[in-house]
Specification:
The structure is a single chain. By secondary structure, the protein is an alpha/beta fold. Helix content is 42%, strand content 15%. It is built from 6 helices and 6 strands; from the N terminus they run αααβαβββαβαβ. The longest helix is centred in the C-terminal third of the chain and has 23 residues, at 135-157.
């Protein structure tokens, strides 16, 4: 195909867009923050340290079965149960209000100052929702609110190493 006016076509300037593509687009990059670098560095030292687990215990006995096996490996476990008054119970377990962030912060600060924060969290409280009178409210309190408070509290106290959280629910 040739244009009717060949001189007009020759004078028409078509820019070379391929040379400017780098100016058009951007490249996504990720740089680890200081916290991520510190967590990676401490993972090696933490792996050799005593491994512990924070267990948010259910009422059906799953937590008891887990704790029996976990403690057989000489690993530490800290049990958390819901209660109306926060603190420690006679058996050494923690009692916290499920939807009160301050209770979680206090418990985690106590752990951090004492034996140290756990490497693992086993959250079984969502299993409590099926035995409650008002299952939808209980599901929100034990399944969502408690995990939200836990995550916020971990951010508040600052974690020196990665903590893996496993939340167990009914499907």
């Amino acid at each position: 195909l040739t244009p009717k006016n060949a001189t007009a076509a020759a004078e028409l300037h078509v820019p070379d867009w391929s040379a400017k593509m780098n100016d058009w687009l951007f490249r996504l990059t990720w740089k680890p923050s200081a916290a991520v670098k510190a967590a990676r560095a401490s993972e090696q030292g933490h792996a050799a340290a005593s491994v512990s687990c924070l267990v948010f215990a259910d009422d059906a006995g799953l937590a008891d079965a887990f704790l029996e096996r976990w403690r057989a490996t000489d690993a530490n476990a800290f049990v958390v149960r819901p209660g109306s008054v926060p603190g420690r119970s006679g058996d050494g377990s923690y009692m916290i209000r499920p939807a009160e962030r301050a209770d979680y912060v206090e418990m985690l600060r106590e752990l951090k100052a004492g034996p140290g924060l756990p490497a693992y969290v086993l959250h079984l409280w969502a299993l409590r929702a099926t035995v409650a009178d008002d299952a939808s409210t209980a599901a929100q309190t034990y399944g969502f609110d408690s995990l939200l408070c836990l995550g916020q509290a971990l951010g508040d106290v600052g974690i020196p190493h990665p903590i893996r959280v496993l939340a167990v629910t009914y499907s």
